Amino acid sequence: MREKGIRECGLDFGDWLQGDMQASPPYGETNAQFMHRVCAAFEKVISGCVQTGTRRIALVCHAGVMMTLLTCYGLPEAAMANWQTDPGFGYKLHLDPALWMRANKMQVEDTAPIPMAQLEQVED
């Protein structure tokens, strides 16, 4: 006996990607539960950086974690689907302690590393 896939269970990845807070994979947590878990851990990391004066960190995570964090904390604000990147890519963020303390927000500066399309343009 095999497990059913997401579509066979009547679920659509698009629901999750669009931020439906009750969307969940079979036997998985809802977006709301996932967001709570991921954001609680992230806030501990950022709080530690602010307290210790740490200026540079790298977070390596799954795309779903990255999109969730940027949806919650990124400026400019954007829907989860807008934070998708190519595999192996992410974002460079700027943490202004005053902005974080006031609004729990960070400035999204650029993608990291430079997307292949930009590298190809530079080579031409």
Structural notes for this entry:
43% of the residues lie in helices and 11% in strands. With 124 residues, the protein is α+β, with helices and mostly antiparallel strands. The protein has one domain. It has a 3-stranded mixed sheet with strand order 1-3-2. Helix 2 packs across helix 3. The longest helix is centred in the middle third of the chain and has 22 residues. It is globular. The termini are far apart.
Shape: globular
Q: What can be said about the biggest beta sheet? A: 3 strands, mixed
> Cα-atom Rg, whole angstroms?
17 Å
Low-confidence segments: none
Q: Could you state the order of secondary-structure elements as H and E?
A: HHHEEHEH
Total separate domains: 1
Rounded to the nearest angstrom, the distance between the terminal CA atoms is 54 Å
Features:
11% strand; 124 residues; three-stranded mixed beta sheet; alpha+beta; 5 helices; 3 strands
Summarize the structure.
By secondary structure, this protein is α+β, with helices and mostly antiparallel strands. It has helices spanning 13-17, 31-52, 63-73, 97-103, 116-123, and strands at residues 74-75, 90-94, 106-112. It is built from 5 helices and 3 strands.
Layout of secondary structure:
Blueprint: H1 13-17, H2 31-52, H3 63-73, E1 74-75, E2 90-94, H4 97-103, E3 106-112, H5 116-123
Parallel strand pairs: 1-3
Antiparallel strand pairs: 2-3
